[in-house]
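Page 42, continued from yesterday. The earlier attempt failed because a stray header line got pasted into the input along with the sequence. Redoing it now with the clean sequence only.
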Amino acid sequence: MLNNRVLIVGLGSIGTRHLRLARELLPNADIRVLRHQECDSIPVYANGCFSKLEEAIEFAPQLAVIASPASSHSEVAWLNGRRRRRDFG
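This time it went through. Structure tokens are written below.
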């Protein structure tokens, strides 16, 4: 049974490493990846893949690892925080 929702943002070398480690630490988690390229296939260790930030936010991750280039960190964090404020007041 899947119990935790984890989002890995970025699938470069660091994102791939975080994905592998997340799977090792949370073997039953629902782990999805957000990447800037279209998701033609599901990456190894992942349960799914998104190519749009809005889809990843709707997934409602309980944990997110931002492993994308530093220039995109604030946009991802801001939009995710905005969703959480809407959901929790």
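Notes: The first strand starts at residue 5 and ends at 9.
Reminder to self: strip header lines before submitting.
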